[in-house]
Design brief:
This protein is an alpha+beta fold. It contains 19 helices and 20 strands. The protein has 3 domains: 154 residues, Rossmann fold, CATH 3.40.50.10140; 144 residues, no CATH class; 199 residues, Histone H3 K4-specific methyltransferase SET7/9 N-terminal domain (Single Sheet), CATH 2.20.110. Strand 10 and strand 11 form a beta hairpin. Helix 13 runs antiparallel to helix 14 and helix 17 runs antiparallel to helix 18. The chain is elongated. The two termini are 95 Å apart. About 13% of the residues have low confidence.
Length: 685
């Protein structure tokens, strides 16, 4: 059983082969080269193939949507939930099939990473349960391909012996029931058929007709195939026979031609007395006649080719070739009509210059050329384009409209020129106005006074710089952001101290960062075993750094690996084992710290944050000022990245005393006396 069946139009076999090759390289077994099994006779075979496979890939294109067989295969697969539609070329899908679920291979040229192919491979994996793995064709795929190829060859031969040999070579074939039936039909045909002389071509109006009055297949003959005789008798006059009679007469003349009596037929039909005399009997061999009868029943190119393969110089060889030429003519014409393009009709004429549809092909080319030239003229929509169209097609149905379009375009061009001149005048006036406006604005900016800006607004109330002038007036009347001039004298004095404290804190933070660097260097020396240093492992962490008098003294690094301070580090000065001097303490989230400040940089005393320093939080907010016993205490500044700022006296981590809260734009939000971050007495300027 194959994994995948590919349904496509024979003309697109190259694309189908490319897809089949890729799928086989990815480890799937594929049935695809079944285009020669066309016609109703093989529908049961195709149906059996679809039943046996896991997925049916249908290649939709303008040609395949017109194919009765492709549509029926797609419908059959869809009703069995095996359909995987693919858009090979842009087309409108038949009723009942949705483009929403189709994978697009319009731009696929064989590359494996094409997005449309990847989506198709995902769909194939979902239906087959097999992932796409680059492993080359499977043995099963090769076996099935060999079986399909052999089946097609035998189908072209279509003899009982060939079908019997196929069953011997492929005893487990899925086509056994079909082949058994074909063998029975062929054997019955050999035993029972009375092989009449059958015309290959329909009646021709170019040949004078006469009436076939006797076909001598006597019942007493031992085998009708071995004794095929045809007698032609004269008919007088040139009266017009009925349509049925005309066909019979024509068939008779073709029978004469088929049996080799060409000269007798020509004499009888075109002689002066319009009389056909009996001619000698001509007999085909039984095998030749049987093969010819079979080819005429199938009426396919493959059937006639099979006849010629067995009887290259057979009795009906010329007529088989003529039939093939006629079928190919019809096929090429159908292909040209389905594509319906100049190229397709020209291909037909290049292949069969004198084909029976040659005049129609030329008419189609002329009609398409006219439509394309008109569409091009309309798309370009210029006077030159319409004039070129009129030169090529002066008397066409679109000539009057083309002339009207030329008149409209000429009128539009005249109006456009006038409008452009008007626009130029307006632009010149606007440029002069802008220049005067800009000069007045430059004068106002140079003066930078409220009076100057007011003068500009008076003279240019709708000018280009009105918004800027109004903003400048507001700015001149507004104090600078965070300006002390906005504060009550008592609050102002407290804020001055807070800003001084911020400067001292930033200076101590810089000293602390220097001390942290020296502490890192001391820790490195300690790990190297340098004199005057130590590495101590403690119950809750480790100390690395300078050491004297039996305890950490100098610069060093303390790391906490367990306990309430797990994750914290101190890098800086130590005295008699305690954090004293300046240093940098980095916090992590632990039982002693839930707010997670990023770090503290500043002064320590006896293991406590005391003095001046800077606390920085992860988002960038910081406090710079005085500390006492690990809390904000004294003058300082609490600054937020949003622009909000608190300046004044702090105690127990809160604003306590005189201070101000600034808005993000640098104006006062509230100022006065505070208790625990709450304003209890407002003091304004």
């Amino acid at each position: 059983m194959a994994d995948i069946f590919i349904s496509y139009k024979r003309e697109e076999g190259e694309q189908a082969q490319r897809l089949a090759h890729v799928l086989e390289q990815l480890g799937y077994s594929v049935w695809w080269d079944v285009a020669l099994l066309s016609g109703d006779e093989f529908r049961d075979v195709i149906q059996e193939m679809i039943e046996k496979c896991s997925a049916v890939v249908v290649l939709w294109s303008p040609l395949s949507v017109q194919s009765r067989f492709v549509r029926s295969e797609a419908d059959y697969a869809q009703r069995r939930d095996k359909l995987l539609p693919v858009i090979l070329k842009p087309c409108e899908l038949p009723l009942g099939f949705s483009e929403d679920h189709a994978d697009n291979l319009e731009d696929w040229t064989g590359e494996l990473m094409n997005s449309g192919l990847q989506r198709l491979l995902n769909s194939i994996q979902n239906l087959t349960g097999k992932p796409a793995v680059m492993s080359g064709p499977s043995p099963e795929s090769a076996r099935q391909k060999a079986e399909i190829t052999a089946f097609q060859g035998v189908a072209r031969m279509n003899s009982a012996a060939a079908w019997q040999q196929f069953l011997k070579d492929h005893p487990a074939t899925m086509f056994r029931d079909f082949i058994t039936q074909k063998i029975a039909e062929l054997e019955a045909a050999v035993q029972n058929d009375s092989p009449p002389v059958q015309p290959i071509l329909a009646h021709s109006p170019d040949i004078e007709t006469t009436e076939l009055v006797e076909t001598n297949n006597h019942p007493s003959d031992p085998d009708p195939i071995e004794d095929t005789r045809t007698t032609i008798v004269r008919t007088s006059g040139h009266t017009e026979p009925s349509s049925k009679k005309r066909f019979i007469i024509t068939a008779g003349i073709f029978a004469v031609v088929l049996l080799g009596g060409i000269s007798a037929a020509m004499t009888g039909v075109f002689g002066p007395d319009n009389v056909v005399e009996p001619i000698e009997e001509v007999v085909a061999s039984p095998a030749d006649q049987a093969a010819w009868n079979l080819a005429n029943r199938l009426v396919t190119r493959e059937a006639y080719q099979s006849y010629l393969a067995d009887f290259e110089d057979g009795f009906y060889a010329k007529h088989a070739k003529a039939a093939i030429a006629d079928i190919e003519d019809n096929y090429l014409w159908d292909t040209a009509k389905n594509t319906n393009s100049i190229a397709s009709y020209q291909d037909y004429l290049d292949t069969i210059p004198d084909g029976k549809f040659a005049s129609q092909a030329r008419e189609k080319i002329a009609a398409i050329t006219l439509d394309q030239d008109w569409a091009k003229a309309k798309a370009t929509n210029t006077t030159a384009a319409y004039e070129a169209f009129l030169t090529a097609h002066p008397g066409s149905a679109h000539a009057s409209e083309a002339r009207q379009k030329i008149r409209e375009l000429d009128a539009a061009a005249t109006k456009k020129l006038q409008d452009e001149n008007d626009r130029k005048d307006r632009r010149a006036r606007a440029a002069a106005d802008r220049e005067a406006d800009d000069k007045a604005w430059s004068v106002a900016k140079a003066a930078n006074t409220t009076a100057a800006y007011q003068s500009y607004l008076t003279n240019y109330s709708s000018g280009r710089h009105v918004t800027e002038a109004r903003s400048a007036i507001v700015a001149l009347d507004k104090p600078a952001p965070y300006s002390l001039d906005q504060l009550h004298p008592q609050v102002r004095a407290a804020v001055v101290k807070a800003r001084d404290a911020e400067k001292q804190a930033q200076a101590k933070a810089a000293e602390a960062r220097t001390a942290a660097t020296r502490a890192d260097e001391a820790a490195a020396r300690a790990r190297a075993g340098a004199a005057g240093t130590t590495v101590q492992t403690l119950s809750n962490g480790k100390y690395e750094g300078e050491f004297s008098n039996g305890t950490p003294n100098g610069y060093g690094v303390s790391s906490f690996t367990s306990g309430d301070f797990v994750g914290d580090t101190y890098r800086g000065q130590r005295k008699d084992g305690a954090f004293s001097g300046v240093g940098v303490y980095t916090y992590e989230e632990n039982p002693e710290n839930s707010s997670v400040p990023l770090k503290y940089e500043g002064e320590y005393l006896s293991d406590e944050v005391t003095g001046f320093g800077v606390h920085t939080w992860p988002g960038g907010d910081f406090y710079a000022g005085g500390f006492k016993q690990n809390q904000r205490s004294g003058s300082g500044v609490l600054s937020f990245t949003s622009g909000l700022r608190l300046e004044g006296l702090f105690a127990s981590n809160f604003m306590n005393g005189l201070g101000v809260e600034w808005k993000a734009d640098g104006t006062v939000n509230q100022a006065g006396r505070w208790e625990d971050n709450k304003l209890v007495e407002s003091l304004t300027k």
